[in-house]
Amino acid sequence: MLNIALPKGRLGDKVYKLLMALGYPCRELEDEGCRKLIFENEESGVRYFLVKPSDVAIYVEKGAADIGVVGKDILLESEAQVYELLDLGFGRCRMAVAAKKDFRDDTDRPLRVATKFPHIARTYYDGLGRETEMIKLYGSIELAPLVGMADVIVDIVETGTTLRENGLEVVSEIVPISARLIANPAAYVFKGEEIRRICDELKKEISK
To answer: Does the predicted TM-score (pTM) go above 0.85?
Structure first.
């Protein structure tokens, strides 16, 4: 069986439709009322796990899943030991630094950075040689500069509407983000032929 970690939500739905088109259907997974988390189809030799998007890389890294689909942001933040096989080209956005429009960096003190992605933010600012104080938040981080708790934020930006509505703007872009196909290194050895076939077929599907 090929074990595939699918992120819950729209991304997982889109990936499943692609895999179904490649010959890996699992009809039970298409039942909207079903609450199961594991779905198997012995005929097509596939087992799907539905997991939280931020957990996909862990399931693949630990070998519970052979392959999975995850955002580049999660890969960078987690530093999971997996093979990144393919940029699927959807879910596109960017990791960026944003601040109030009148922001001026005071280099005489550490820069206060509010973010859900402290590893990405720290790596970025270390590369610039800028000393920082990381503030890990889980909710609406746009609030942090507005109440004076942080100087800047590092977050995923899609349209930028939320930033503009809160008087913030992008200061710099760190890295483009999109959905990636990943594989467990051991599975890539032992199930490599099938994984590579899926990767090649996905390339053809997304290039249509």
So the answer is: yes
